[in-house]
Amino acid sequence: MSAQDWAEGYVVDLDYTRHYFRELSPAQLRFVTLLGGIDAQDAAPFTYYELGCGNGYSTALHAAANPQGTFIGVDCNPTHVHNARKFAQDVGASNLRFLEKSFGELLQEDLQDADFIVLHGVWSWIAAEPRQHLLEFFRRKLKPGGIVYLSYNCLPGLAQVAPLQRLLLESAGPGAGDRIEKVRRSLEFATRLQKAGAHFFSANPLAAARLADMGRHDPHYLAHEYHNANWAPSYHADIARELAGAKLGYAGSAALLDNFAQFVLKPEMAKIVAEIPDRALAETIKDYALNQVFRRDVYTRGAPKAAPRQLEAALARTRFALARPRSACRLASPTPAGEVTLQAEAYAPVLDALARAPECAVLDHGRLRQAVFGMAALGNLLPALPAAGEGKRRENATRFNEAILRAPITDASNTFLASPVTGAGVAVNLIDRMFFDARHDESQAVGSAHTAVASGRLKLRKADKNLESAADIEAYVKDRAQFFFTDFLPFLKMLRVAV
């Protein structure tokens, strides 16, 4: 059997990039259902599947930060599964296993029923038959009240990009070379076509902009994103109808801001959407209003709408933590609908309280929902796990983080560490990672960072540009060190990422 046979058109001859996606965390998915006013299952212990898990970074991090769950990662690529199993062993994640299975083969396995099933991007890259296998897996295995996360390339935003993807796929085929060479060759050909005056690019400016942006991306990512034989962006209404056949209903978006029409839609557009009684159509019209290119949908199985008192009680039981250092929290932010400003007298005291420690409700119930939802929409806070069980979570997360930090720094990408408070990952950038390694001695940390940069092994970047001059590097390291030790390190300690 050739790779093309078992891979069903998916790119398997090139390792996928290692990424972390916080929206896949159980606590965040549960919170999305609360945003949607839905009383979804709040199970502990729980069973969690990530389908199309790649190299398993997100799966392993979430397993480490949530030892109360059983985690199962599934991928058809044996290289990915090998890497994921090795990674799980290295970080000591014992509540985790990986299966090398196609979605069709998965249906033949005798597996535990699921509380969570998550897929990031996979739906857009597979053919009709594997999609049907996924729907059948949802139907058979998801428990009543369970949650499905499904992200996918969507329409209408990618309507102009679909012909560009076909151009890249077809032009990569002829000629010799490995997958990376074919990616580069396809980009060069498309760029040459554009420069020669192909009317497609002038008539489709979003495709031209997407082509220009590809040059800054890792070729491994480009291969998996654009070189699959099956590349099919979808309308939300079509996805919702297909999942309804598996007894799933739409709960909300894991991109939290998108759940608030007043923040993402102009008033006249929000009025039009509010007049549409059908939820799937309303969401699709929102996508037209925003020219949406990617969706992060959350669905539930049979979970009922919560009565207002139930919702308030669920929110009152939920701990919350800051999503960023207190100094970086924003009460005003630009949104697709314009500048949004939250009242400082109402919201600042809540942020101050959460800066001291994660808490349950810090407001009276009458204002709880508005405050929590508003600050979550602007990215200031995240749901946190209950205080009970934090000791075990901390032990596992510390083991994961120590393993990650022992690995050498090989590039400028973010490192994601596990928080036993939120049950999710926290991004640590290149310079902060260097400070973190010597966090008990500020002068030593700054000196180590200067030494690493001076060696030429690592490049510091600011505003998407490499810092080249010694003066620029010194100023950046000095400024960032002050932020790290004054603001970021206390934040990491509060989330129990640092001790």
How would you sum up this structure, described in words?
α3 (57-65) links the parallel β1 (46-51) and β2. It is built from 22 helices and 15 strands. It has helices spanning 3-7, 26-35, 57-65, 78-91, 103-106, 128-141, 161-172, 179-195, 199-203, 205-214, 219-226, 236-244, 261-264, 267-274, 279-290, 308-317, 344-356, 365-377, 390-406, 430-437, 442-454, 470-494, and strands spanning 46-51, 69-75, 96-100, 114-120, 142-153, 249-253, 294-300, 319-322, 332-335, 338-341, 381-384, 415-419, 424-428, 461-462, 465-466. Mean pLDDT is 89; it is low at 9-15. It has 499 residues and is an alpha/beta fold. A seven-stranded mixed β-sheet has the order 3-2-1-4-5-7-6. Helix content is 48%, strand content 16%.
Question: Which descriptors would you attach to this protein?
Answer:
499 residues, alpha/beta, seven-stranded mixed beta sheet, two-stranded antiparallel sheet, 22 helices, 48% helix, 16% strand
